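Example 172.
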Amino acid sequence: MRTPKVFIARDRIQDAVCRLAEEIRRDYRDTAPLLLSTLKGSFMFLADLVRVLDLPVEIAFVRLSSYGSGTVSSGQIEVVQALREDISGREVLVIEDIIDSGRTAGFLLPYLIARAPVSVRVCTLLDKPQRRQVHVTIDYRGFTIPDVFVVGYGLDWNEQYRHLPDICVLEP
Ligand code: IMP
Ligand code: MG
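Predicted structure in complex with inosinic acid:
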């Protein structure tokens, strides 16, 4: 195990979650959106967000995989667990942990749009724009971060560190 060093502390994460919830609540005031969480990384963010959102949301999951293991994207997106819910006629809000190259979101958005939702918006806790390969329109953004590999608060390195309550970087 490498030593995790706090990069974004839990209280700053909660402040961002509350701010995002306010923005989302304002935009979806009279609707019951479907929150679509991309597994596994966004599970903790989703859990915190829905508890402060105060909207009658429904929740769905999809699991995509782009990183085999380690920190370098394979570039190939694989649907590990497909969407089972019917999203036609729904307002879909994608809940992402991090958008890095943009390949995952770039794959997911057409996959969703093909299923005839009314709208699809994207909420990501973290945005790492320096490594973007595929343009993604981000509607709600928690933090913009530099090109560092982060773990914790749902994010992993080789399936480790997801449980950490802060977003951390790994000390060598
Ligand atoms: P993208 O397809 O390159 O945008 O990457 C999206 C996925 O890569 C995320 O959902 C994460 O699973 C993973 N990822 C990208 N950057 C990081 C990081 O810094 N830490 C942990 N996982 C990351
Ligand atoms: Mg991951």
